[in-house]
Structure to design on (142 residues):
């Protein structure tokens, strides 16, 4: 019973962060649902095919070297899902319980998770679910 409740709670966090991502991209960055869906699909593909560390590197690369649309999407996703030390990003929430103290940035988070197999799989699942919800939410808002 306790495990099922934990899954529901973590799923709620994923859905909440997905909504925050899409709302910010639509309102503040003025991106269309189609632009968001297209770019997030690329991110999900990298995550599924190449794994979490490759995904983190890809998002950082797009954040600083992508098209203007990719930069906006990658920046918001990186900030809200991984973030820097002290930020209320998804992976750093106390409720999630990942051991990310001292991981100052996205690369450090990847390195820290590489040493913790359970944490690595949890982080990958959380990012996967959140990005999937981002795609669904972006499609529904147009």
């Amino acid at each position: 019973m306790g495990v099922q409740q934990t899954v529901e709670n973590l799923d709620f966090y994923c859905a909440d962060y997905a909504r925050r991502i899409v709302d910010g991209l639509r309102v503040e960055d003025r991106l269309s649902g189609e632009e968001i869906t297209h770019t997030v699909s690329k991110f999900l593909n990298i995550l599924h095919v190449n794994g979490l560390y490759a995904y983190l590197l890809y998002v950082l690369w797009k954040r600083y070297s992508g098209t203007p649309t990719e930069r906006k999407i990658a920046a918001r996703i990186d900030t809200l899902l991984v973030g820097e030390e002290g930020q209320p990003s998804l992976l750093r929430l106390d409720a999630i319980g990942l051991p990310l103290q001292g991981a100052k940035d996205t690369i450090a988070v990847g390195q820290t998770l590489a040493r913790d197999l359970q944490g690595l799989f949890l982080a990958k699942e959380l990012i996967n679910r959140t990005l999937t919800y981002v795609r669904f939410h972006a499609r529904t808002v147009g």
